[in-house]
Structures are given as C-alpha cells and as structure tokens.
Design goal:
This protein is an alpha/beta fold and about 210 residues long. It has eight helices and eight strands; from the N terminus they run βαβαβαβαβαβαββαα. The protein has an eight-stranded parallel β-barrel with strand order 1-2-3-4-5-6-7-8, surrounded by seven helices. Strand 5, helix 5 and strand 6 form a beta-alpha-beta unit. The protein is globular, with a radius of gyration of 16 Å. The mean pLDDT is about 95.
C-alpha cells in the first residue's frame, strides 16, 4: 500500500487498558465511524497467537472503512496477517532491516525525537515519522518530551510525513498548529473516552484547523 499522507491526519493507536470487557475491534470501529484515518495495533503483552488473532479482527474493520492498518513493533505478526505495514521505535529495529523483511510495498513508520534520528530513518526506508512525546503521557512512562521547535525543524527539513504523538488531547492539540505536522497519533484521547465515536469526531474537527 502506498502511503497517502492525508491518511495520517487522525492516527489511532490501540490500547486494551480501557476495554472494560468490550471488544477491541468494536472500539476501533467506533474511532473509524468518528473519523479516524489510520490505525496502529499495539500489543505489548499478548502472545504471538493472541496478537495475530487480534490483528485479524482489527484488520477486517480497517478494510471495511478503507483505512491503513499497521502493527506496532512486531514484523512477524504484520507478515502473518498481511497488514499494511509496521511502526517501529528507535530501539526496535533499523528501518532498513524492516524494509528487507517486510517488502517494498508495505508502510514503515519510525518513532523519532531528533532531526538526526529522522534523517537516518528516512535514509533507511521509512515512509513516515512519529515524533514525540509532545506532552506528558501515561502510555509511555519513559518517553522524553520533544520541543515544538524540534518538531517544527523535523517537519521542515526531513521531507517525510510527520505524526506528532504523546499526551495529545482535545485540550492541547491546537498548540501544535504551525508546526508542519500531517496528523496526530492518539491513544487515550480516543480509547479512554466515554463516547469513542464522538471523541474521534471532535478531534478530527480540531485537526482540520491544526493541519494545513
């Protein structure tokens, strides 16, 4: 799948912490009904079999809505379910190695915090960058914050689509206006909301003003 940077506008990253007995694929569908444009399945503690089963369910929902679907970190799972791609961190694997394993037609996203990391990710085959954390986040306790100036510099110099991530909510997303981002990746802002569909809808409306 060729990446359309417009699909990065509202990038939903899953987290089963807030399911409270609900089905993850159903919650993902609510984000898509509200306007989410991209989905990353993140499973830190699931077994390979559980991860694959979950991925199949979420992939089917994403396919229904025509939205790109990528797997966080796990290339084997991405290959097993024929996902649209993978998203990897700096410590997970070099983008070049990922490209060799996953093929030329898949999407690769790479987490970066500096211009140097971003340029290296581009050189090694990344299609887009996830930059952050922009604000304090409970999802990744070890994530160091990136300044707005650093984000703007990455957007302006690297030449790849950029998604801001980390602690982004309805209350602070407008602070990212003017940085040059192509979208935001959000976790709890959607999946911890009482009304997931409406939370997605509200975030999408704000992003239409933030992203030029």
């Amino acid at each position: 799948m060729k990446l359309d940077k417009k699909s990065l506008l509202l990038y939903a990253v899953t987290d089963r912490t807030w399911l409270n007995g609900r089905n993850l694929a159903d919650d993902v569908e609510k984000t898509l009904q509200g306007g989410a444009t991209f989905v990353q399945l993140r499973e830190k503690d699931a077994s390979f079999e559980e991860f694959v089963e979950q991925a199949k369910e979420v992939k089917a929902v994403c396919k229904k809505y025509g939205v790109p679907f990528v797997i966080n970190d796990n290339i084997e799972v991405a290959l097993a379910v024929d996902a649209d791609g993978v998203h990897v961190g700096q410590s997970d694997m070099e983008a070049g190695s990922v490209r060799e394993k996953i093929g030329s037609d898949k999407i690769i996203g790479v987490s970066t915090r500096t211009v140097e990391e971003a340029l290296l990710a581009k050189e090694r085959g990344a299609d887009y960058l996830g930059v952050g954390a922009m604000f304090n986040t409970s999802t990744k306790l070890d994530a160091s914050e990136v300044s707005f100036a650093e984000l703007k510099e990455i957007c302006g110099t690297v030449g790849l689509p950029v998604v801001a991530i980390g602690g982004i909510s309805l209350n602070n997303v407008e602070e990212l206006q003017g940085t040059g981002i192509d979208g935001v990746a959000v976790v709890s802002a959607l999946f911890a909301a009482k009304d997931i569909k409406n939370a997605s809808k509200e975030m999408k409306l704000k992003l239409d003003k933030v992203v030029n």
